[in-house]
Design a protein that fits this description.
By secondary structure, the protein is an all-beta fold. The protein has strands at residues 2-6, 9-12, 17-24, 30-38, 44-51, 57-59, 67-72, 77-82, 91-102, 108-114, 118-123.
Length: 124
């Protein structure tokens, strides 16, 4: 699976940005997709995730009510709409896809894929 992220940039506090991530390749094996972020000197943390089959979403507490993740099945794309941005949202955002598929013997395999990071900077 290949992931191509787009969006990001510089915005003032209170503004909005939209990130997109298009998946290609073995997209039939995608189990869930999401966005992580990593600020300088910090670990990479989950921001939001969507289950590919059910559409069920989950969010980090810090972004609940401000960020919305959505998926476009036809285009194998996920979007992250970020509203009411805060300076603490500044980070490199990474698109992620987790795949789950059986081999010929019925053994299930899981793999994690990452897109290139995209910088989001929120000025105060």
């Amino acid at each position: 699976v290949q992931l191509q992220a787009s969006g990001g940039g510089l915005v003032q506090a209170g503004g909005s940005l939209r990130l997109s991530c298009a998946a290609s390749g073995r997209t039939f094996s995608i189990h869930r997709m999401g966005w992580f972020r990593q600020a300088p000197g910090k670990e990479r943390d989950l921001v939001a995730r969507v289950m590919w089959s059910s559409g069920r979403t989950s969010y980090a507490d810090s972004v609940k009510g401000r960020f919305t993740i959505s998926r476009d099945d036809a285009k194998n794309t996920v979007h992250l709409q970020m509203n009411s941005l805060k300076p603490e949202d500044t980070a490199v955002y990474y698109c992620n896809a987790d795949t789950l598929y059986p081999d010929y013997s019925g053994t299930w395999h899981a793999q994690k894929y990452w897109g290139q990071g995209t910088q989001v900077t929120v000025s105060s």
